[in-house]
Amino acid sequence: MSAPVDLRSDTVTRPPRAMRDAMFPAPLGDDVLGDDPSVNALQERIASMLGKEAALFLPTGAQSNLAAL
């Protein structure tokens, strides 16, 4: 039996090999500086789906709530 998944923090998680293999070829960039191609593509896709000029990706509901304030 494998060990349980530890979800206490993103700093202690251990992604399985298949996930690491899928992540390895992904293009990298700094999302804070606006040059992460994956984040930019996601934001553009969501904006298009919602008929909006732009979108902002926030990884948690707490961040979304704070940004809305």
Query: Could you name the ranges where pLDDT drops below 50 across 5 or more consecutive residues?
Result: none
Radius of gyration: 16 Å
Structural class: mainly alpha
Oligomer: single chain
Between the first and last Cα atoms, what is the distance in angstroms?
45 Å
The best one-word shape is extended
* Main sheet summary: none
Chain-averaged pLDDT: 86
Fraction in beta strands: under 5%
The total count of strands amounts to: 0
Summarize the helix and strand pattern as letters.
HHH
Number of helical stretches of at least 4 residues = 3
Helix coverage percent of residues?
A: 40-55%
SSE layout:
Elements: H1 17-23, H2 37-50, H3 61-68
